[in-house]
Amino acid sequence: MVAVIKTGNSVHNIFNYNENKVKEGIADCIGEGNYPLEASKLTGAMKLNRLLKQNELNTNVRRGSVHISLNFDPSESALPNEKMLEIASQYMQKIGFGNQPYLIYRHYDAGHPHLHLVSIKVREDGSRIDMQNIGRNQSEAARKEIEKMFGLVQAQEKKKNRHEIVKPVVLSKIKYGRTESKSAVQSVLDHVLPAYKYKSLSELNAVLGLYNVKADRGEENSRIFKTNGLVYRTLDENGKPAGVPLKSSGFYSKPTLKFLQKKFLLNTKTASHKKRIANAVDRIFLSSCVSISDLALKMEKEGINIVFRKSEGGQLYGITYVDHTSKCVFNGSDLGKPYSAKLIEQRCRLSFEKEKEKSIPILSQTFKSNKAVGLENNKKNFFKDLQQDFKFLDFKSAVEKIIEVITKVENDAFYVPNQLKKAPKKKRVKRRSNNL
After folding, report:
1. Residue 77, helix vs strand vs coil
2. Positive or negative CA dihedral for 168, 172, 177, 182?
3. Which of 83, 138, 285, 396 is a good FRET partner for 61, with 20 to 30 A between their CA atoms?
4. pTM of the prediction?
5. Residues 27, 107: contact at Cβ < 8 Å?
6. Helix or strand or coil: residue 260?
7. Would the pLDDT of 412 be above 70?
8. Could you tell me if 141 and 59 are in contact, meaning their C-beta atoms sit under 8 angstroms apart?
C-alpha cells in the first residue's frame, strides 16, 4: 500500500473533485467517519457543511483541507468495500485523524484499486493538527502495520523488485484506467528514452505521444517550470492529460529534465537519416495525389509516423517525423522547406489540382457523347459515372462548373437558332465609272 497526503486551501475543491468522479460513474462514496448519518443517507450539502463548519472554528489555519489517497497493488483489485473501510478507519486512527470528520471514496479510474479520503486539520475544540513530516513518520508507520494486519502487498518489497515487475516494452497506446499508470509509463520510457534520437522535449513528446504519454514542464510561470522540474502525464484518446501527473524523480530510472538535457546533447542524427524520410515523402507525391491524412497513412507503411501539431482552431502549424527504422525524430523544417507543415499542405493541394487538369479533356469528351440525350436528365448519371471513374477525388464541384460553361450558350435568353436568323444583307459593291 502507498499513501499520498496533500493539503490545500479549499475544502470545496477536494470535495467537488471526488463528487464529480461519483457523478461520472468512476467513483463511489463508500463510507464516512464521525458523521451523524451513514454515507448512503447523507446529501452532498450535509457532507460538505460538516467539514466547513468545523474548519471555521480556526480561521488562522490557511491550508485546512486534507486529501489522502491510499493506493493498493493491482493484484488486490478484488478487495471488498468492507475491507477497504476497515483499512481507511485504521489508517486515519494511526495518523491522528481518528476523531476528525472524513469521507471515504473508492475510485475506479486507474489500473490499480485506490481510496481517496477527504478531511480537515481543525479539531472540534478549534486546535490545529500538526502535519509536519506526517508522511515520513506517522503515515509510514501506519502503512507498515496495516500491510501486516490485512495481509497486503508490502510497498517496500515492491520497490526493491521493481526492475523485475515492470515490463520492458509497451508496443500499444496506454489506455487510462485500464492499466496501472505508473508502470505503463515506466515501460514506455524504458522503450523510448534509450533507443530514439531526439534533440528537444518537443521531439521526445512526438514519440511519447504515440503511446499516450507526455513529458510536461508546466506553464512558464509555474513552480515546476521555475525549479526545472518535470512530470509525465498519461493522455486520453483526444490527446488531453488524464489522471494525476507523475514526478520524473519518482521513476526508478530517474528520467528528469537534467537527464534528458544530457541525452539531447549526446544524440546524433546524420544526413542519411534525413534523406530516408525526405525520399519517402517525395515518392508518395510522385505516385499519386494525396491528402494530408493519406500521406500519414502511406508514411506509416514506410515505418515513419507523422505527428501533426495543430492550433485549437484546427490550423496546422507544425509537423514532426518519427522514423522507427533509424529511430530518429525530425521536425519538418529540419528536413528542408518542402517538408515543413506549410509546404506539405501546399504540395497536397497542388497534387489534387494537377489531377483536375488531367481530367478536363476526359470530362469534355464524356459530355459531348452524352449531349444528344436530354441534358437535364443526364446530369445525374453523368456525375455518377465520373465519381466511379475518379474515386480518388470529389469531382462534383468541378463537373458542375464545366457543365455550366458548356451549356451557358444554350441557356442564354438571347440565343437564336440559325434557322430563325435573317439572311445577312448583301453588301452593294460600288462600280468604277469608265469615264475615270
Report:
1. coil
2. positive
3. 138
4. 0.49
5. yes
6. helix
7. no
8. no
